[in-house]
Amino acid sequence: MNRSAPRNATADNQLLIQTLSPAHRAPLLPLAKRIADSGCNMADARVSTIGNDTSVMLLATGSWDAVAKLETALAKLARDEEVQIVHYRTTPREPTSHLLPYLVEVIAADRAAILVKIIEFFSRRDISVEQLSSMRYQAMQTGAEMFQAQITIGIPSETHIAALRDDFLELCDGLNLDAIMDPVKF
Q: Which of 179, 160, 183 is nearest to 170 (CA)?
């Protein structure tokens, strides 16, 4: 799934790269070297190990020709049968100064569809999910199956925060979830 962008040698071009691989073959270092060797910079990076596999997501920036050189280098890396690579050119994100960043944390006894109900709550209010991390785990003290999520959301500035928080906490009370919603402090 590769998309081409118009050639522009003066502006920074962006290439979004995502890989999936067995954890023991995580290609972070080879990708970082290829990005540097091509004359690009790594603008953003996310690495996550889930189960026995690792996902690496990188945003590389550089001149048009440096990004083209990186695309060629990625094609060579993609020949490795244990590493799946998807990459495409993208554009810088438009500033979202009208969105207020908030962090939502939820902990509960694990049940089906908890995350779906939380995402649905925010989606119905046109609140964007900027980052999400969730997991199941076994409580050390009791052995109970637990669910935990950390979600960074973007709340439109015209939203009444106190009313939103009340509605969210009412949803969580109804679902028997322990939750907080606080502004991101950095």
A: 179
Task: Enumerate long-range contacts of 72-79, CB under 8 Å, 24 or more apart.
Answer: 73/34, 73/37, 73/38, 74/17, 74/34, 77/27, 77/30, 77/31, 77/34
Q: Nearest Cα to 178, choosing from 101, 110, 77, 92?
A: 110
pTM, two decimals, is: 0.76
DSSP state of 25: G
Give 61-79 pLDDT, tens digit per residue: 999 999 999 999 999 888 8
Q: Give the position of tokens 């020709």.
A: 65
Q: Give the DSSP H/E element, type plus range, for residue 121.
A: helix 114-124
Regions of the chain with pLDDT less than 70:
1-11
Q: Which 3 state secondary structure label does DSSP give 133? A: strand
**Alpha-carbon span 43 to 14, nearest angstrom:** 9
